[in-house]
Amino acid sequence: MYSLSPSRIARHFYHECDRCLLFGSIAKDEKRRRGIYVPPYDHSPVTRAILQGGYEWEQQVIEERIAGKVHIAPGPGDQRVTERTFEVRDGLRCLAQMKSGEYLYQATLKAPPSFYEDYNLNPKEVSFGQCRPDLIQRLPGRKRAFRVIDVKASDALKTSHKVQTCLYALILQHVLDSQGIAGELSYEDSAIWLYGADSPEVFDEEPIRLYVMEFLRVELPRITSCDPLEAPWHLNYRCEWCEYFEHCWEEAKETQSVSLVPYLTTAGRSLLRDNGVDTLADLAAFLRRADAPSILDGSATLGGQEEKLEYAVEALTTDEVVASGGATPAMPRGENVRLVLTLQREPVSGLTYAAGLLRTGSNEVFSADSYDARQFVASCPDECEDVRRDFVLALYEVFQELDDYNAAHSEWKDKKSLQTYVFDSYEADLLRELLLEALSDPDVAEEALALLFHFQSEDLMSTEERPDETADSPLVALTSVIRRLFQMPIAVAYQLGDVLAAFNDEDSSDSFSYEVDAYWDFAFSNRLKSDAIFDVWYRGKSDYVERIGRRLRIRLWAARNVVDRIRDHADNLFAWPPKFRMPMPDDFSDPVLSRLAFMTRYESVMDYLSIRNVRTLTRLERERAGTTIPIVAAGEGIFVTTSPEIEQLVGQWRLLLTEDSEDGEMAQMRFADYRWRNKWFVPKNAALAFAEICGEIEVEGDRRRFTLRIKPGPESPNIVPGRRYLLHPAFTDFNTDRVIGRLREIDQSGAAPATTVLTSPHSLLGPRTALKGPVRKEIERLLKRRERRDRFTDSQLDALSHIIDNQLTLVWGPPGTGKTHFLALAVLTLLEAATRARRPMRILVTAFTHAAIENCLRKIDSLREDLGMDQDDAPLAKLGPVYTQGCEGIDCIDRDGAMGFIGRNEQCIVGGTVYSMLKAFRSQPGPRPFDAVVIDEGSQVKAAESLLAISRLSPAGRLIIAGDDKQLSPIINGVYPEVGPDEPVLHRSVFEAVREHDREANTITCQLLENFRMNTSLCSFSADCLYGPGYRSANERVGERRMPIAAPRSAGGSARRGSAGSRTERQWVETVIDPAYSWTMCVLEDVQTGAANWAEAELVAELTCELRRRLKDESTNRPFPDTMAGDAAFWQRGLFIVSPHHAQISAIKQELDRRNLRAPHFVDTVDKMQGQECEVVIVSYGLADPECAMIEGEFIYSLNRFNVAVTRAKSKCIVFVPRPLLKPCLSVLENPETAMGAGMMRRLGMHTAAGQALDFTVKCDMHPEGTRLAVYRR
To answer: H/E element holding 77?
Structure first.
């Protein structure tokens, strides 16, 4: 019998350990009888303080927050409230009699039989005994609605809190039903009463509830069916909060468990266990297997890591530090001034109670003091503010003194550099939080802001000032550096004392000794244990303050010595810190422009760091990820590779080309991308060249031939036929400085006209802003003509009226609604009316990409001819070159001719990117020549970039922003703070920035509703999920569209390498492509793999071959011809294949090549699909690794990306989703954005399953024995 409770299951979600759950659910006597470890009682002061703090907070809530409204069980007068509980019967009576708004404290609930029946639990094996939620409230204003509130002495809402509350709610619902007590649970009102809060924090329990219900029905029976002595377990830092930690730790050391491998995740351990790996010896043997790499690819954290795992085993078994082959751009080779920081937080209150700094180096700067070590410790909770204040002032003093010194020395060589270190990343987080808190302290606010300027944070978006520059590595976390460079002879996690001991040479005279002490140090975590501070605060041991200070001092010196030891052992450090300067506040007067400039610069640095971090991974990691491509020179600029990932590099104008040698590797690592981000030439001392792939990549079996345009430098490698080289990504950025420069021009000329759209867009509405006079009259005359009016749909006419009546219009164009067609027609209507009225109408059309701009200009050109407009009356031009075909009616003007073209033509349309505005008006900051600015795909244009175009709009001009915030948005690297209700949203697209202001009023936004692409079945799903009931197929012809497909051949079958295929294979293919079912979801069961799912790729290729033979061209009603022209038409109009990962795209392309389908194939990411359409879409998610899905949740479960993928098809959409993706982990469901994407994916699963569900066993090379495929269609 396992005795379970909501709190115990909540702990399971924290520890992720089956053993912990089972051991904790067995009675002590039974444990002893079965030889299961019985832990001793925990007497630590931390545990006592946590429990005591919880009791005191509960009592405070009961007696102060809800006094007079709560039912409390009776008890002796001297009995504490927290010790009182209702018996089952008394609690039920209170539940039945509770009045609106009342609370019930600690009622005992017993799960009734219906609870066990509902979740298929055997009450003879599993028991939910006496469960006591802290509070049950009958909600006010509702008829018999209840909610559960748990009281927690915590400063943050945690997953385990939500799980516990959810379980209480599930049990309570069954209790109410079984006892006939009227009432239902309001899951959306569940709440946690956090420490110090005046009211409970409400959260929507629905996503958690679905997950917990799945756990009860599926996972719990699996766990409880195990022998507890055989239950899976794994060590990680959370284990130190488990009562069975010592037992597991000793077992791991005794058995040399694979759990000793540092930073091995629970999912990674599970994959190794499934493959017979339990010990370090097992792992060493496994890694010698030929199939080890492909097996490890099934885990996000183990894929491509076989080399590092070998080094880890070597380090642990030889007790030696092993270099792992990686590098880091963060760790410098040296610095003039070294600063080491440490900060410590008390876990109950969340207060930072101790901080310290150690400064060494540059005696000439700091008055001949060779070092400065200071520690600050709070002797009581109230002194934590003093600690924060003193620490900020001490840190600022060091910075200011060094800044003064450098300011006094004009020669670069005389200035000093500074690098700041913490040992662990948690200290970096605490530093940021401490500085943010200090901003509200008037005594140190100025100093805290100056420090925040140096250390950098997205939080600067919400401060009153921002720095004038951005640093890339102002703070180095040493554990991150060590993990990049070495494998240490240390189990589970790198703890400070163990790291120093591993590095120290016993024969060295400068070795620093750090004695690990169980009173101070955790086994795995680098946080200082809280026993000492609890002894100070709650047990009166004031002398321990000095002891804590000494311990901080030891930690600072230990961390400083780790820096030296890293440099002693690493031979591939290449970075140097810059000469130090205290960043100054930027010179913007407008706060909105200041924020935009900061974000623009910060995003650029984040992009740079992302590329540098990728380039400094180990060679194996880079090759496996496809970021470093081995190539062989074939002569005359032609190169050959066997890496299909080469296609990912097409379109990147600057790649790094190096020799495939140690010197080449060091050259690419040392290349200072940020310094050379906007330079066209190669640095003279760099042993590399710039390169760009030209033209198409030719596929010859498993080889790919391509041409490189190479820009050499003085030290570039010679290109010799037959020699091996490497291609690497490089960071380039020609625009950030220009954008910030333009923002500064706007600021200096008066920001209000340009920024009004972001700050107060509703001021651009109303009669005052309407078009008046002759132009308006001419528009009205045009629209009275039926042939013109009928070109618009009803919703498009509404949008056009809004454009006429208001200066700002947001055109919300869901998929297939003819957004570009409407913009073209609206623009031409404005232009023709102005021409007739002899009034100026210069219109700028801009967008995120050249393709989007040229698509809109082509549509304008086409409609211009249809409407009978003379080209001379409607001049059409693009700034810069045209890249797509079919643009013969569009003039090209260079940046020097832009003002001349605009000056010569009072009525004209000019297209160009926002960056082309910088070039066209480079020496003219003031002109605002455009009477209308149209931003197409505005949901992909960042707010800062949009101002480059908006600032060129005349004072009374029309601004039309078209887009769809449910489709692709701009890529934002930083995690910026959310803004208040009246603050502008600057860290998203310009479309979203305006839309956020208009969510409630909805007076700026005009939604286009008529869908000209998708049939009724496809359209209705998107309408139900995202766009509302008004979103519908435009007419009966569109609504009844069906996939045109020829009848199957009487012989043949599976297209794979010409094989006939079995009847089962034929059946699944026919079932999936049946044109009567517009929606089909294919779910692969029992497959776990990483980003490349070869089994799914084979199935996608099978379907593609069948469609290539049978899919009809809508224009001819015949199958696409078996010619090169037929291939091009098929991939342009017939089929798109969409996948989120390049690895899956590559796998699908390889499978198509194996089936002799001629390349190029249109298999790509959704980024290449937005704005396009075709008859059929196959979406292949591929990813079947829950861990990878969790890590990449914001990408994999992006609602916007999913929406784009499934809305490209006209008549049929086939979605391949491995089963694990339909069961997202809890962290995915807790994130509101990923929860929405996962919800839409699951909703499609339920939508299709409501039609027809069929199961097949399909065979493929990866699973010759067959694997299960569930097909749902509707």
So the answer is: none
Terminal C-alpha separation, the chain:
45
> Which helix or strand (DSSP H or E) is residue 954 part of?
strand 953-963
- State the angle between helix axes of 990-997 and 943-950 in degrees (0 to 180), rounded to the nearest 10: 90
Give me the half-sphere count of Cα atoms (radius 13 Å) on the Cβ side of residue 1244: 33
**CB 751 within 8 Å of CB 956:** no
Helix (H) or strand (E) holding 1268: strand 1263-1273
Tokens of 1069: 């293919």
CA 1124/CA 501 separation, integer angstroms: 66
Q: Angle CA(576)–CA(578)–CA(583) in degrees, nearest 5?
A: 150
Q: Which two tokens stand for residue 137?
A: 């409230």
The CA dihedral of 38, 44, 50, 56, to the nearest 10 degrees, is: 110
Please count the other Cβ atoms lying within 10 Å of the Cβ belonging to residue 371: 14
Ranges of residues in the chain with a pLDDT under 70 are 43, 142, 368, 506-510, 751-752, 1050-1065
Give the 3-state secondary structure of 768-786.
Answer: HHCCCHHHHHHHHHHHHCH
Query: Taking the model in full, what pTM does it have?
Result: 0.91
For residue 429, what is the enclosing H or E element?
helix 425-438
CA–CA distances in Å: residue 1214 to residues 71, 371, 519, 1069, 1143: 56, 67, 59, 12, 20
Query: In terms of C-beta density within 10 A (0-12 exposed, 13-18 middle, 19 or more buried), how is residue 744 classed?
Result: middle
Count of residues making up the chain:
1274
CA angle 989, 995, 999 (to 5 degrees): 150
What does DSSP assign to residue 960?
A: E
Task: Identify the sign of the CA torsion 551, 555, 557, 558.
Answer: positive
Going by C-alpha positions, the residue among 1244, 1274, 1260 that lies closest to residue 1015 is 1274
- Structure-block tokens of residue 705: 């031939």
Residues 6+ apart with CB under 8 A from 155: 194, 195, 196, 349, 350
Cross-strand bridge partners of residue 1081: 1215, 1272
Locate 398 and state its tokens.
Answer: 């060091």
Query: Tokens representing 1196?
Result: 């994999």
The number of angstroms, rounded, from the C-alpha of 877 to the middle of its chain's C-alpha atoms is 39
pLDDT, position 1083: 94
Write the pLDDT tens digit of every residue in 322-350.
999 999 999 999 999 999 999 999 887 88
Closest CA to 844 of 906, 931, 925, 948: 931
Cis, bond preceding 474 (omega within 30 deg of 0): no
Q: Which residues contact 780 (CB under 8 A, 6 or more apart)?
A: none
Q: Give the rounded distance of the alpha carbon of 462 from its chain centre.
A: 21
CB count within 10 Å of CB 846 equals 29
Confidence (pLDDT) at 507 = 57
Task: Give whole-number Cα distances, 234 to 12, 261, 265, 1187, in Å.
Answer: 13, 10, 8, 16
Question: Which residues lie across from 958 on neighbouring strands?
Answer: 932
Which of these, 792, 784, 701, 785, lies nearest to 1012 by C-alpha position?
792
CA distances in angstroms from 1100 to 1051, 1070, 1075, 1147, 1181, listed in the order given: 21, 13, 17, 10, 11
CA distance 891 to 887: 9
- What string of DSSP letters covers 483-535? HHHEE-S-SSS--HHHHHHHH--TT-TT-------TTTB-SS--SBPSHHHHH
Catalogue the E-assigned strands of 1009-1078: 1010-1011, 1032-1033
Distances (CA, A) of 460 to 41, 153, 332: 47, 30, 26
pLDDT digits (tens, 9 = 90+) for 761-786: 999 999 999 999 999 999 999 999 98
